[in-house]
Amino acid sequence: MLPFTYHNLTFSGSGEFTLADGTINVGGNFVQSAGTFYLGSFGDPILNVTGNMTLGNNVFNSRNAYDSVINVGGDLNIITGGRLLSYSNYGTDTVTVTGNVLLSGTGSWDNFSDLASNISIGGNLTLANNSEYYLYHDTVLTIGGNMILANDGYFSAEDFGSGENSTITVNGDFSQSGASI
Fold first, then answer.
1. Is the separation of the CB atoms in 141 and 135 below 8 Å?
2. What angle do CA 142, 35, 135 make, to 5 degrees?
């Protein structure tokens, strides 16, 4: 299957969209302001976004995929009501963000994989204003900049008692103010 290519890709309104297994290339920005987006069904889907990716009042789900890959060349913003479920039921999950990641206003990111996940953030990871990040099962999280927890931001790394360990590397500073870890 040839990759699908878009300049900018925007989803708004209710409903569901499922990417057939394959590759989506977005030359500009990816914006999802409502609805549910499924990245693949049971293959190895890839989403490449050259610009920024913004999720709000929605669910972006890679849960049904074997080995899913999400590459964002700019910033990833998960804002009010936005939810990123980067799950891989049967394989590994890879998310690479060249810029910063901001979770704010009840935005949340759940990262879970049956095998392992690799999350790489080139800039800062900021959790603020009632946002949440959950990290599970043998995940490697690398943050090139600072990790900032503020104003009721919440970060959790869990292994469910199964002996799996996640690794978190922050190359910059870690700061916490009015937030939970």
1. yes
2. 25
